[in-house]
Amino acid sequence: MAAGKTVLQRKLLPALDFMLHDWLKVSDLTSRQRFEEHSRETFDELMSAASDVAADRFEPAYRISDEQEPYAVDGGVVTPQETHLAFQAYRDLGILAASHDADFGGMQLPRTVDLATRVIFGASGHNLAPFLLTDANASLLLEHGTEMQKRVFAVPELEFRWTGTMCLSESQAGSSLADITTVARGDGEDYATDSLGPRYRLTGNKMWISAAEHDLTENIIHLVLAKIVREDGTVDPSTKGISLFIVPKVLVDEDSRLLERNDVTLVSLNHKLGHHGTPNTALAFGDGTHTPRGAGGAIGYLVGEAGDGLRQMFHMMNAARIEIGLAAASLGMAGYATALDYAKDRRQGRPRTQGAKNPSRPQVPIIEHADVKRMLLAQKAYAEGGTALALYAARLLDDQMTGTPAQAERASMLLDILTPVVKSWPSEWCLESNSLAIQVLGGAGYTRDWPVEMYWRDQRLNMIHEGTHGIQGLDLLGRKVRVDGGAHLDALGLEIRSTVGAAERAGMKAEAAALARAWDQLLDATERAWATEDPSEALANATPYLQGFGHVVAAWIHLDLAVAAAGSDHSEAPGRTAAMKYFFAYELPRIGAWFDVAARREPLCRDVLPEHL
Q: In this structure, is the dihedral angle defined by the CA atoms of residues 433, 65, 97 and 467, taken in order, positive or negative?
């Protein structure tokens, strides 16, 4: 590896290399027609190039973007020059469209490798380029849009000439999307025949929109949920009345040429604990600030069928949930790399061995102390385990798209049940990882002289992004484990039992037995939670159930990684075994308390009176 690599890149690249090649065997994908132009060499070259750009442009700009927050001027938002340089470097690298079809400017790169590059940029400066939402926005249009919408809106996004957003929440609705009040009305008698899609005028307000206003690109494409007003002036009050609209900041023609400003207005910037580098906004649609085509109302183009908006948006949200988990793991990796490097250099204290308290003996690096090793092992298990979990999901996405019918079906079932875990587990435990990074640095970690406090602040949002823990728990226990009579849960069980068998053959009998017992606990808790078939009883402890479920999945991932390490001479192999042993010794035993309250349908949190809180 190049001597000039930064501390962070020296930690990231070997870990990702092991996961991609020794564990996930991504080079095997090149035998499939979609990926036949690639090889291990092209994968490695791309990872190295991404690392260079991240080190040169993203790492230096990250702290600057945190300290020099975007600010509003004359209805626009100004970002630091360093953010512009990082954004331009990422755009010049040309990898936003990497996993997409060549017909749309893509490289047809495996999603697994594509998301591995996101780990690098996520750890180096996640808020400097809105690649997650822009890619998800374009992907939704490629899946549900017309050919014209794909060419006019998605292609410029994939070129990163434009960026994209998702506009769901409203101040009075939050996650309760049935309660949104943004409405759409047909724009003129010819509204249904516009070449860009049925044309509507939208009015309403949206909140918590990342990168909805900035000065990085000439246009921003908003995907907006709204309800179409019926002839009698009413709207469907349920989620079945929600439709999805393309609402560009600047209207364009059929050749993607800019025309005039749409009636989309910045109301305010939200000032958050972290993620300072990403403008987070409240927008008004159709407040009359602008008058496109001589009238008020934001012009939007219907995507697909009316009333199908929520289903379409979940295509974007599910992809985003995997990437939120990946982003959380990336920040965990950044904190871990800093803490590990600090612990190797910082000298304090002496080993607690006989005669070691002699003050004449030199102090030792703090990495020699057992409790510091404990904190570093925990960070390693959380951050690298979370990264591996998200990349495993990416590998499933590749199988879903390019595998045999049997592989695609297996991948779809596993993605369905694992997505809540992929989103939530790294978000919770990599926050703990970032907290431990601060602890390793001690008082220094609590200052802005070191980046670990920034990582923690930025990390805290991931537990809220794209559905809170409570929502993910309700989804998992309320629906995912029961789909098709538990078929998706059974599919996961087959994978876990396979790893148990492989671990036994590799000599890891104790861990194999522990994982088998943990899976049985999970199944028992699932069955007992639903014993009465009363959702109010079963779901009162959905979040503890999710925590236990997530730890079982993480234990499986770590054991599977250790099995791969047992047959590998990779430099990362010994660390994989150490992280697995830590997780089984210190983390997996926690699941009993979480599963117990779910299994006995503990009523306290459901029944406690508000006046007693």
A: positive
Tell whether the model's pLDDT for residue 568 goes beyond 70: yes
* Cβ contact 157:137 at 8 Å: yes
What is the rounded distance in angstroms from the CA atom of residue 15 to the CA atom of residue 113? 13
Report d(CA 545, CA 558) in Å as an integer.
Answer: 20
Q: How crowded is the C-beta side of 120, counted as CA atoms within 13 Å?
A: 28
State mean pLDDT over 170-195: 91
Q: Is the dihedral of CA 169, 174, 176, 180 positive or negative?
A: negative
Contact partners, residue 350, CB within 8 Å, separation at least 6: 356, 357, 358, 361, 363, 364
* Predicted local confidence at residue 466, as pLDDT: 84
- pLDDT tens-digit profile of 84-128? 999 999 999 999 999 999 999 999 999 999 999 999 999 999 999
CA-wise closest residue to 429 among 471, 492, 385, 467: 385
Return d(Cα 450, Cα 8) in angstroms, integer.
Answer: 13
* Tokens encoding 335: 């904190």
Look up residue 31 and give its two tokens.
Answer: 């035998």
* Cα separations in angstroms, 234 against 217, 237, 274, 320, 375: 38, 9, 40, 32, 57
Two tokens, residue 189? 């008698």
Predicted TM-score of the model (pTM): 0.96
Helix (H) or strand (E) holding 76: strand 76-78
Count of Cβ atoms closer than 10 Å to residue 133 Cβ? 22
In 3D space, the residue among 427, 430, 477, 420 whose CA is nearest the CA of residue 594 turns out to be 477
DSSP annotation string for 157-207: HHTTSEEEEEE---TTTTT-GGG---EEEE-STTGGG-TTSSEEEEEEEEE
d(CA 452, CA 435): 8
Please give the Cα distance from 81 to 85 (Å, whole number): 6
Q: DSSP secondary structure string, 241-277?
A: GEEEEEEESEEE-TT--EEEE-SEEEEEE---SS-TT
Please, what's the b/e burial string for 449-461 (b: 16 or more CB within 10 A of its CB; e: otherwise)?
ebbbbbbbbbbbb
Residue range 513-553, pLDDT digits in tens? 999 999 999 999 999 999 999 999 999 999 999 999 999 99
In this predicted structure, what is the pLDDT of residue 356? Answer: 59
